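TA notes. Do not distribute before section.
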Amino acid sequence: MANFITIFRVFLMFIGVYLIMTQIDNSNAYIWALILTILAFALDGVDGYLARKLHEESKLGALLDIMSDRIVENTYWIVFAVMNWLPAWFALVALTRGFVTDTIRSAAMEKGLTPFGMQKNPVCKWITGSKFMRITYAVAKVLAFIVIIASQIPCLEAYSGPTYRFGYWLAIVAIVLCVVRGLPVVIEAKSVLSDNQG
């Protein structure tokens, strides 16, 4: 059930993105895209809760969760760049960070470590895996995406300027947190990678 929800949220996101990219100037389509975006991110918490509650925690579930997070997050960054809602560098930074950290975490998983379990330094562990940092990043990212989509709804055009500026600054906060949460993985990569070579 948990893995199904993890995959289902990706399909919700794709429908939302389809509405954004094909129904320009259609207020109803953008409102539905906004609702689907909220649902796609809300389900991210539900899948983890269900996995723990139903004792369905597994390496596959952890991988699916990370994969779906990357697909959903990166798709929005890319779509916003394509739609010219955000500069392309947001997407480039998010994608680069994802490729780098996921490559290192793959090496760690080959050694039997979880994506967050590879962190040994307490500060690095807190930055990447603490509930506070994960929730702060998730909230900043989700709010940025929601506010930016809301700023583009044609029937709310009178409020689009201030709404977009707020969304833009939320996107700045989100992308900074994205990089900050990725740095400890890079900092502690040496031990994981050198052991793999030996």
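Switch to the second chain here.
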Amino acid sequence: ERPFRSRRQTSRNTIFAFSLTGTAAFLLLGLAGYFNNGFEGRVSQEIRALLNAKDGKNPQRTNCLSSEKRFIKPEASCTFGDNRNVIAAVTGDSTGHALIDQLGEKLKAKNSGVSEMTYSGCPSTLGVYRFDLKDDHRCAEYNANVFHYLRDSSTHQYVILASRWTLYLEQDRYDNTEGGAEEGGPVFLDVVDRDIKIENPNPIRRKRVQAQYIKTVKEYVNANKKVILLYPIPEAGWDVPRYLARLRMGNPGNTEDLTTSHQAFIARNKATYDVLDSIGEHANLVRIKPETILCNSFVKGRCVAQLNGVPLYSDDNHLSSAGARLIVEEIIRHFDNN
């Protein structure tokens, strides 16, 4: 520090020259990183593939997933697969959005297509709203529009209801109690009664939300749609691609499965299962439980978040393409031969 304070030892021109050289060096390093894709060679191809899984969500997210900033009317919704023969719709929040690519691919092979009618942070439930969000989050309006459109549609024979039912019911984000906790605050969902948004005490709120879950499924069934009701997808808690990348960087030979407790899943989702189970049986209602695919199957007593180093999630709760493929394989079995 002292030489720079002394004008006798260091001139102003010398200090300026050093500063200019240092700035130029950092600038050149930044440009080199930019033009070399962040120096991709500094990490292995395996690590890059894991980190790229975070980008594995639907590339049309901003175009096809409704939100506060983009309210997409049902008739303008995106179509995946063969748009000349659209037979199904996925409605719900970003849980359904994460399935749409793989479902579109499967239906395309059957010369059929599917519409995406999803809204971020909004379950496929009639008459509910998010009272933790502003009025421009138009959940109740969106779900009403979708229901009326699908009810009157002669082409959409199948309706797939996919949402984070448990999150909206329990409010708290997921903590797997093993070091993985989802970021973000609580979620508050309540009912709209005669166009008035109600904010009930939690015990009453829970009962009313549960009643709306039941009502929505029955409304679609009574509209003569074949309803495919997707039960809760196990939450991971960890940002799975990043977690796996850190594991591989710390121990490249590590092949240990990244898993969560099946018992923890059962405990968190008990109330949701109880309410969805209470709807009863109907010829037009199909239940799909991702738990039976991901939990106590590949690893006893555990729910898997990756298989053979491939992430089944693109973050801490949304399925990646690989994860969605496992669920879609089960969904597609319930489509008639179209």
